[in-house]
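User: I'm putting together notes for a lab meeting next week and I want to include a structural view of one of the chains we've been expressing. I don't have a solved structure, so I'd like a prediction I can at least talk through. The sequence is below, exactly as it appears in our construct file.
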Amino acid sequence: MSVRTTPPFRADHVGSLLRPRALLQAREDAASGAISRDDLRAIEDDAIRDAVRMQADIGLRSVTDGEFRRASWHMDFIYEIGGVQRAEQNLRSVFHNESGDLEFTPAAVRVTGKVGMDHTIFGAAFEFLRDTAAAVSPRATPKLTIPAPSLVHYRGGPAAIDHSVYPDMDAFWEDLGAAYADEIGRLAAIGCTYLQLDDTSLAYLNDPEQRAEITRRGEDAEHQHETYIRSINRAVRDKPAGMTVTTHMCRGNFRSSWVARGGYDFVADALFNELNVDGYFMEFDDERSGGFQPLRFVPKGKYVVLGLVTSKRGELEAKDDIKRRIEEASKFVDIDQLCLSPQCGFSSTMEGNSLSLDQQVAKLRLVAETAEEVWGTQ
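Assistant: Thanks for the context. Below is the predicted structure for the 378-residue chain, given as structure tokens.
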């Protein structure tokens, strides 16, 4: 088995990290006017430096800023796209966990103008991460996570798009793809070599209930995933040489709860053979994600990062159990095309999942140690 010196790495992670208490308090203080935005930025800077150092110290090659400057893994980005606005009404998502249901009601999205990109979204945030990573370790590769273009559409569907602006949905998809391609070019220009497009829709659509909802709003549920795959392909069509682009798929991650269930069977063939990305972060932490059989569609040259360590609970997995599951997955795709990570981020929103900072670090360390024992030193 070969050692990987380019992303995705044998030991990797999705991106978001639990916010330290001091950072959460600072955000509250900034919102109330008790401290300035500059004060908040300085506290964010310190927290990100600590987070990058933690990731490097435990042996991870990819480092993120934990998404510490965001309230949400996706909405902070989407609202900055030209032509996209925060809607007056809220979305309603019902998340599930072992204790029952949990409602999440973020603001909805409206496309009210021609979609475009007039600045580098998260550009300054990435530059700080880039410089911090270089100062911490020459081995550290800064990874930026942004929502996939499908997320601009999935929650609201055609009803969220002003038809006087886009009477033709093909024009919407072309403009959205061009905006993302512009963003990716801008990011490459400031040194981003590892970009992750987070896409819940490609996991949600494996759930028959989610497809039924797509049908209810008048769309073709049997082929919606193909529309979303084409949207990502438009985004990466001019991907510069030297940049790795992966996608991460999950079924919901809010305060240790989830939305959808179902294995990857429904989307697998198109996902692996039509989506033009270099790797796939896939959650496989419990029965909701199904088995490894869909991995039989993975072609040579692409990598799957197995999310075998849950970010939703603090109990630490057994290393031998993880190794057995890696072996099981390798029956369907060459083990040299596999990597290991937690199943999702630890804090997709500011609230974070139900585990401690120490438990988070233990899980990331477990990923690094297990990967080294399976594939060798990175």
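A couple of points you could mention at the meeting. The chain is about 35% helix and 15% strand. The first helix runs from residue 21 to 32.

User: Perfect, that's what I needed.
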